């Protein structure tokens, strides 16, 4: 921290011994040591706080970059999805004028024939005309 050599420390100790006196010098040295320890802890706490803030800023910048890249990726995917959807819609789209088929109308060639009736409804009458027994289906005797 400071460039203080051994010779300079000896001079400071001699001046402190003369000014403070031999009786109070140990108490003052102890107090100075405690204060220097507190100062060192305070400086290290400030350094660690500054380092944490720097790391937090870097993390925020990285988060913003990742969010920007995610937004760009989402936008590009959505535009690609829209283009694929539009191309599929155009390729599958129904013709411009759809032909309407009338299902209930009879074809032209079948108009001369009578409408069909239910064949099961006339079955007993036909069996009687043929001389068949209605229960067994054999010829009546």
Write the layout of secondary structure elements.
Blueprint lengths: L5 H15 L4 H68 L30 H8 L11
Describe the structure concisely for a colleague.
The protein has 141 residues and is mostly helical. Helix content is 65%, strand content 0%.
Can you count the beta strands? 0
Please state the overall shape, judged from the principal axes of the Cα atoms: rod-shaped
By helix and strand content, what is the structural category?
A: mainly alpha
Strand-residue proportion: under 5%
pLDDT < 50 stretches: none
Mean pLDDT: 79
H/E element sequence: HHH
Query: If you compute it from the alpha carbons, what radius of gyration comes out, rounded to the nearest whole angstrom?
Result: 54 Å
Percent range of helical residues: 55-70%
Q: Terminal Cα separation, in Å?
A: 136 Å
Largest sheet: none
Number of helices: 3
Describe what you observe in this structure.
With 141 residues, the protein is mainly alpha-helical. The chain has a domain at 1-90. Helix content is 65%, strand content 0%. The protein has helices spanning 6-20, 25-92, 123-130. The mean pLDDT is 79.
């Amino acid at each position: 921290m400071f460039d203080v050599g051994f010779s300079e420390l000896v001079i400071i100790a001699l001046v402190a011994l003369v000014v403070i006196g031999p009786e109070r010098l140990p108490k003052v040295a102890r107090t100075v040591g405690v204060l220097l320890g507190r100062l060192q802890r305070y400086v290290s706490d400030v350094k660690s706080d500054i380092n944490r803030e720097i790391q937090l800023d870097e993390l925020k910048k990285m988060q913003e970059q990742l969010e920007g890249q995610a937004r760009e990726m989402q936008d590009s995917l959505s535009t690609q999805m829209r283009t694929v959807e539009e191309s599929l819609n155009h390729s599958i789209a129904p013709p411009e004028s759809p032909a309407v088929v009338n299902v209930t109308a009879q074809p032209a060639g079948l108009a001369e024939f009578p409408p069909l009736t239910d064949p099961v409804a006339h079955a007993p009458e036909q069996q009687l005309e043929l001389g068949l027994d209605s229960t067994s289906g054999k010829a009546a005797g």
